[in-house]
Design a protein that fits this description.
Blueprint lengths: L2 H14 L6 H18 L5 H30 L9 H4 L4 H19 L4 H23 L3 H10 L1 H10 L4 H24 L1 H7 L4 H5 L3 H22 L4 H20 L5 H25 L1
Helix pairs in contact: 2-3, 2-8, 2-9, 2-14, 3-5, 3-6, 6-7, 6-8, 7-9, 9-12, 9-14, 12-13, 13-14
């Protein structure tokens, strides 16, 4: 086994967990950070912070792998995904399964450091990770399932930090579900024509010509719930400044998706990383 082969394998494994596309990891990380700071109303302890950061990475990696294991036949038929490690043959399904089990074991090792309520919630999180790849076959709203899955770290954080699940926790949970549906529908607009050919379901297909309008309604819902959160826990003005900036970012996203060009829809999707970052700054300086 020569050096170049090892490097090729390492790059393929990195690609399998989307190490070359960190935006997905960041979109899962931001709501976790929001919850860490809001649940404490100050900076979290380093121990809890580190456990959740590593947990986000390991479960995101596991989720990417199981998604590719389930979808490899579909991915091979779509131009954007046909070169992914499994459909291209760079990583075997056996190797992918071993890597998946490794990341699940890592996640489980981390969650064992937490309290019983958080451990219980982690099993629901794993269940959501496992079922999401199948949802695009059976429902027109797989984005909603992804929204619940990507929002699940929020109640886990509150359970660990406060041993309770207050209304603010569920308001943030709801806001994040709306936000995930925004950016994953934008992402689905990129692949809409290919998805129609292979029979994959998505919110972009379901919403059809009303996609921009419904995305706009979801964006408005995000802003309303965030304002409600700020009002209920008396966050400072900097939090509301961040909401205004997010409002401007949402307008920019609407401009990007106006003509439904796949490249522009993808840029709108990527722009959501700034939404997460700006909101984190608003929370950080607003608590």
């Amino acid at each position: 086994m020569n050096f170049s082969y090892k490097v090729t394998k390492l790059v393929a494994y990195c690609s399998l967990i989307r190490g070359n596309q960190p935006v997905g990891l960041l979109l899962l990380l931001w709501p976790t950070l929001w919850a860490l700071w809001l649940s404490e109303m100050s900076s979290p302890s380093f121990r809890v912070f580190l456990i959740f950061i590593l947990g986000v990475f390991s479960m995101r990696s596991a989720g990417c792998i199981v998604n590719d294991l389930v979808d490899w036949k579909i991915d091979s038929c779509i131009k954007r995904t046909c070169k992914r490690p499994i459909p291209s043959g760079l990583v075997s399904k056996k190797e992918a399964k071993i890597l998946f089990l490794f990341f699940v074991f890592l996640s489980f090792s981390l969650v064992l450091m937490m309290n019983e309520k958080t451990i219980f919630l982690s099993f629901i999180g794993l269940f959501l990770t496992l079922i999401y790849p199948f949802m695009k076959r059976y429902t027109n709203l797989p984005q909603m399932v992804l929204g619940i899955s990507f929002s699940w770290p929020i109640p886990m954080v509150w359970a660990e930090v406060t041993q309770s699940l207050p209304k603010i926790c569920w308001l943030l949970f709801l806001a994040n579900i709306f936000w995930v549906m925004v950016y994953d529908t934008q992402y689905a607009m990129v692949d809409r024509s290919d998805d129609l050919k292979v029979g994959v379901r998505s919110s972009a297909i379901l919403f059809n010509r009303y996609d921009k309008l419904i995305i706009g309604c979801l964006q408005l819902s995000v802003l309303i719930v965030l304002i409600l959160i700020g009002w209920k826990i008396h966050l400072a003005k900097s939090f509301y400044y961040s909401i205004f900036i997010i409002f401007l970012l949402f307008i920019y996203q609407q401009m990007l998706i106006a003509d439904r060009h796949p490249e522009d829809c993808f840029q709108a999707f990527l722009n959501n990383n700034w939404v997460g970052f700006v909101l984190f700054l608003g929370i950080f300086f607003g608590i």
